Every structure is written in structure tokens, then in C-alpha cells.
Amino acid sequence: MKHWFDAARYRAIARDVAELAPGFDRRKFLALTLDGLDARELMDRLRQTATALDAALPGTFREKVAVVRALAPRINHGFVGVALCDFVARGGLDDFDASLDALRFLTRFGSAEFAVRPFLARDQARTLAVMTAWTRDPDEHVRRLASEGCRPRLPWGQRLPALVRDPAPLAPILEALKNDDSLFVRKSVANHLNDITKDHPDWVLARLQSWGLSSPRLAWIAKRALRTLIKRGDTRALTLFGAGAKPVVRATLTARPARLKLGGKLTLAATIESRTRKPQRLVVDFVIHYVRANGRTSAKVFKWTELELAPRSTATLAKTQTIRDFSTRKHFAGRHVVELQINGQRVAKAAFVLRRQ
What we know:
Blueprint: H1 7-20, H2 26-34, H3 42-56, H4 61-75, H5 78-91, H6 96-106, H7 117-122, H8 124-134, H9 140-148, H10 161-165, H11 171-177, H12 183-197, H13 201-211, H14 216-225, H15 227-231, H16 235-239, E1 249-256, E2 259-261, E3 265-274, E4 280-291, E5 297-309, E6 314-322, E7 334-342, E8 345-355
Parallel strand pairs: 2-8
Antiparallel strand pairs: 1-3, 3-6, 4-5, 4-7, 7-8
């Protein structure tokens, strides 16, 4: 992804800005972006783009912002456009009104969810008031920014400690967007609520219960918002979806092959046999206990399926998972235990041995 900011991209940006701002120092911009480019990772390249624009553009902050706004439609790449929002965040903290208006405009070309956070840290009440107004904007990108930008634990974003401690100021924004016509916006609301469950699960559960889940839109938000709690087997979250009861089943789980090479496919097979005369609502997950570098293990829960198990019936499930390294997870050789989790209860287990070569 870092190659989204490559030499060709920077030369194209320099060409466009030179057309928009006659006093633009093209040579300085290219020197600041291209020198040392190979050593920079994605976010470093993004930040350096903003720094270089600031250094190479003439005029006041507002004059520079006018050029950046004109440049935005020419970028034609959502993540590269984020660099323009970063430019505003870096230079505009002392010009609140112009900066927030610029972020409202720029977010449709590259999300301003990261750039608005320094303004929240500087003046939370004032920024949230503007973001609450954004919930009524006709553009779905702006409405999404109202939710996404103030998520307390936004991935890759600046942490907002005050909102981690107390999410109450976020309620007006979430309430305003919970029935938004755009799935893009409602997904942000759900992810926002999921953030809050990590610190204030009771707050989220009470709010969702007050909404009522008869509406398909609200039920969808609730399920996504509670996904972390459901994976943890939280009975209150499971109960909201009719799966709070302990499963009355006999279950088996197998993992094949027994010895797996990194990059290979692991196949899980489960049977779930009802041991009651009543139907059961089941939320089925599986848990892999990954071996860590120190030989200990770390469990990760994966969603499998949801089902209605009829009385005295048997369900057969199969799942394939590729075991390979990611930027966020490196695998280590050793015996990995896999567990079958139903309604938060671990009911069966299997294992496989992972080889890196």
C-alpha cells in the first residue's frame, strides 16, 4: 500500500498543484517527497506529503487550503486524498472554522477521520458540536465522518482518552445516525459502538436495548456493534439475539490435516447434536490458540455461523481457513488447539501441528 505514494504519484501531484498555484515551488515539493522515499512506510509517506505541500505552497494557511481544496478532485485515490486532510490538521488547529469546513469538504475525496481528531483533542465540545451538525449533511461521506471521526479507539487514529473514559458526549451523534439511509454510515455507527463496548459494555447494551431491535437496520447495527462481546461469550449480548441460553448439545470437532505447513489450508468439521426437545438458537464460533514466540498461546475467536437447531436434530458444519502470516500476525511452529464455541461455551476441541517449512 505504501506504493500508492510513489514517484509517479508525486510528480502528478506536483504538476497539478503547479497549474493551480503559480507560486508553488515544484522543485522543493519533489525534493521533500522523493528524497528518502524508499525508507518511508505508508503513514510516513502520507504525512510527508502534507509536510511537503505546506513547505512548497506560498501564502497564508487559508490561501494554501484553497489550493488543496481545488487539488482534491484531481487526486482520484481515496487514501492519497487523506494526505490533504492531514495537511489541514497539521496547519489549521488555530483556525478552527476554516479547518473544520475544509475537512467537511475534503472528506468525500479521502476520509478526514484521522484529521479531525486533533481538533477533538484540542476542543472536544466545540468540535463535537460541529460534527453533530454534520449528521444532517446531504453527503453520506460527511455524515459518516461525524461518526467515524470521533470513534474513541479508531484503528490507526489518535486515541481520544476523554471519550474512552466517558462516551456520553457521543450519544447525540449515534442517535442521529442510527437509522441513516446509507449503509456506509450505519456501518460506522456499528463499529463506533463496538469500540465503546471495549470500555463500557453496559452503556452500549443499555442503549441498544432502548432502541429496540425490531427494525432490520437497528438489528444489523446491534449485531455488528456487539460482535466483540458475542465472541467473548457475553450472555447479555447473546440474549439480545435469542442465543443467551447454554446449548444443550453433544458436539465434535476435527481439524485436518493433523500436520500443516504455513500457507496451507486447515479444514474444520463439526457436528452438533441436539439433546433436547426444544429448538435452540445457536451462535457458533471457533477459537484458535495460536502459539507465540515464547511458546505460550494466544486465543483468537472467529465467527463461524448462526443456526436454528431443531429438537433432536444434528447439524454438520465445515470450514476452511488458510494459515498464513499477516502484517498483524506472525505464526510460530507448534501444536495449535482449536475449540468449538457455541453461545459462548467451549464444547469441543481438536488440534493441529503447524510447521513453518
